[in-house]
């Protein structure tokens, strides 16, 4: 063990766990000697952590390795989960060394991300990040997991934000091109964003007016009926001869996301606190408010059980109350007319009695 100097930099040289370690300290010899004594105490007391475990591996490089050796092997739907999450995580942590990412960095990511997406989506990002670091620890790349101790966000799974008719009109008037067709399909079918973006021409039957969904969230095939508005929107969508997808780029690849175009339309429409998935809520809400029974709505949404669809039951109750109120007004009118007839009858009766007395 000792302090060495190379140029203007001092190094400390020592043995730990049977290995020789040389650590760069800086231009101050006294500081190097202090650090060396600290390492000696740590080794003697069994508290020494080999900092060489924190290899200089960039986050995106390890994430790619994680995807290849872990996700693809253990997760059949890795493209929908880990692949999507890692792409987002690379935007925030790409270029950083794994060991340099701190708990504070993760908290900052969490605070920034919640401004863009739902709590559930943020939690999925954090869960993926935590799994990546757990695997990095297992593979002896880092010592600790910066996500450990980070609290997940409460998820509002009962959110039922939907557009009113006037808001729908504003939104559609501010949509153009492919995003308009996508929004129309979402509003009129209740299909999820992934189902719409993955839609292929071969699974649309314009004659029968049905869209066939083979790859759904519930892993079950589903037949989605089309109304005229949906049909017209799809028929007006320009086909790319080099692609099977309905919504795709010029090179034929399907759109991965439409967040930017959608939020641009939302901003122009002056609509706040609304996500793309809420178009599905809008579809269901307006069906229920139109008097469609909950089981039919469940079938159209592709819910396995009625439990998920019951979130819209309060809308049904509200409109039933409105219907009763209409009946109440009609009854009031009938009652008023009855009272008039009754009073008129009483007056006639009084007259008759008077006449008899005379």
Description:
By secondary structure, this protein is mainly α. It folds into three domains: 2-48; 59-138; 165-313, hpI Integrase, Chain A (Orthogonal Bundle). The chain contains 14 helices and six strands. Strands 1-2-3 form a three-stranded antiparallel beta sheet, with helices on one face. Strands 4-5-6 form a three-stranded antiparallel beta sheet, with no helix packed on it. Helix 7 crosses helix 11. The longest helix has 45 residues, at 313-357. The protein starts with a strand and ends with a helix. Residues 351-358 have low confidence and may be disordered.
* pLDDT < 50 runs, ≥5 residues: 351-358
For the terminal residues, how far apart are their CA atoms?
Answer: 136 Å
CATH architecture of the largest domain: Orthogonal Bundle
Would you give the CATH topology of the largest domain? hpI Integrase, Chain A
Summed up, the domain count is 3
DSSP strand tally: 6
Largest sheet: 3 strands, antiparallel
Oligomer: single chain
Largest sheet, order of strands side by side? Answer: 1-2-3
């Amino acid at each position: 063990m000792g302090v060495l100097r190379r140029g203007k930099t001092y190094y400390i040289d020592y043995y730990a766990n049977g290995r020789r370690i040389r650590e760069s300290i800086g231009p101050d010899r006294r500081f190097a000697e202090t650090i060396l004594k600290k390492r000696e105490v740590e080794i003697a007391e069994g508290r020494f952590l080999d900092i060489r475990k924190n290899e200089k591996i960039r986050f995106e490089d390890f994430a790619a390795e994680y995807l290849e050796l872990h996700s693809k092997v253990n997760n059949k739907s890795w493209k929908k989960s880990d692949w999507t999450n890692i792409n987002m995580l690379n935007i925030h942590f790409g270029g950083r060394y794994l060991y340099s990412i701190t708990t504070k960095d993760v908290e900052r990511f969490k605070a920034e991300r919640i401004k863009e997406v739902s709590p559930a989506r943020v939690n999925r990002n954090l869960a993926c990040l935590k799994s990546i670091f757990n695997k990095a620890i297992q593979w002896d790349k880092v010592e600790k997991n910066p996500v450990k101790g980070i609290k997940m966000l409460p998820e509002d799974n009962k959110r039922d934000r939907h557009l009113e008719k006037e808001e729908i009109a504003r939104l559609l008037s501010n949509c153009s091109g492919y995003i308009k067709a996508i929004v129309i399909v979402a509003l009129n079918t209740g299909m999820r964003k992934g189902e719409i973006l993955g839609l292929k021409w071969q699974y649309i039957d314009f004659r029968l007016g049905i869209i066939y969904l083979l790859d759904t969230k519930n892993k079950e095939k589903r037949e989605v009926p089309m109304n005229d508005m949906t049909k017209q929107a799809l028929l007006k969508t320009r086909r790319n001869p080099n692609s099977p997808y309905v919504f795709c780029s010029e090179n034929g690849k399907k759109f991965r996301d439409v967040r930017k175009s959608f939020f641009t339309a939302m901003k122009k429409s002056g609509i706040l606190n609304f996500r793309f998935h809420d178009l599905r809520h809008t579809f269901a809400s307006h069906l229920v408010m139109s008097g469609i029974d909950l089981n039919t709505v469940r079938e159209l949404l592709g819910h396995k059980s009625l439990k998920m669809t019951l979130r819209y039951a309060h809308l049904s109750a509200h409109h039933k109350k409105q219907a009763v109120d209409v009946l109440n007004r009609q009854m009031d009118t009938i009652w008023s007319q009855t009272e008039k007839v009754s009073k008129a009858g009483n007056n006639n009766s009084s007259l008759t009695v008077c006449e008899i007395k005379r």
